[in-house]
User: Which sequence fits this backbone?
């Protein structure tokens, strides 16, 4: 059974860089049928797509976050990662990693999510 | 990119049918059949219930059905049950090769 698990610091100081990793278990991350995504949700608010990466290295980012976001993949570790720079309190949210279906453009598998708080 | 527009809340009695809407533009919902719906219970991760406008993943109840007309997609929940009380989000592929979510609808079972 394929599972995704987010990991990383739960507290980040303003102006610093938020870094999270998603570990994929039960299948190879190199499967070309999928892309690997980050999605976030502030408390009491809706979902926001951050971006995704194919294992070829091709990325797509939300235009509103594009200047601050980097998503990378490490196929040897079956992991992909998110870096969000210059964070503010507005970046406080539950961050989900998710598997995207390349040909269906949907998210069929999600991690449980991890809360990241931006505060000094 | 702007979030797709969903009603903030919809309610219904057990056994009834309700319909949730998701309105976008010709650059997203209206231009592609890659519209999905997700169900999210409190404190849980979203779960895919509809993809490509009308298709249900294996294991999802056939009480959930999707459709689309123009720039508006819809999710119908038939035979409403207490367990359907949750938040529902739509998503769509866009002409910019990005993905966008809807604002979300809270479903209450009266």
Assistant:
């Amino acid at each position: 059974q394929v599972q995704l698990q987010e990991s990383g610091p739960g507290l980040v100081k303003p102006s610093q860089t938020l870094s999270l990793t998603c570990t994929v278990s039960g299948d190879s991350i190199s499967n070309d049928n999928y892309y690997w995504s980050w999605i976030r949700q502030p408390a009491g608010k809706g979902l926001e797509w951050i971006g995704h990466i194919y294992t070829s290295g091709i990325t797509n980012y939300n235009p509103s976050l594009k200047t601050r976001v980097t998503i990378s993949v490490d196929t040897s570790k079956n992991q992909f990662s998110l870096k969000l720079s210059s964070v503010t309190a507005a970046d406080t949210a539950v961050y989900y990693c998710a598997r995207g279906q390349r040909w269906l453009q949907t998210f069929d598998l999600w991690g449980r999510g991890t809360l990241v708080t931006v505060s000094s | 990119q702007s979030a797709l527009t969903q009603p903030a809340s919809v309610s219904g009695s057990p056994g009834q049918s309700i319909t949730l809407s998701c309105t976008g533009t010709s650059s997203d919902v209206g231009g592609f059949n890659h519209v999905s719906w997700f169900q999210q219970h409190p404190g849980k991760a979203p779960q895919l219930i509809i993809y490509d406008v009308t298709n249900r993943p294996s294991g999802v109840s056939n009480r959930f059905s999707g459709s689309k007309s123009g720039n508006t997609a819809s999710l119908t929940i038939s035979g409403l049950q207490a367990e359907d009380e949750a938040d529902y989000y739509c998503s769509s592929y866009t002409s910019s090769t990005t993905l966008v979510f809807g604002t979300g609808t809270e479903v209450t079972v009266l």
Strands of chain B lie at 9-12, 18-23, 35-40, 47-50, 64-69, 72-77, 86-93, 99-101, 105-109.
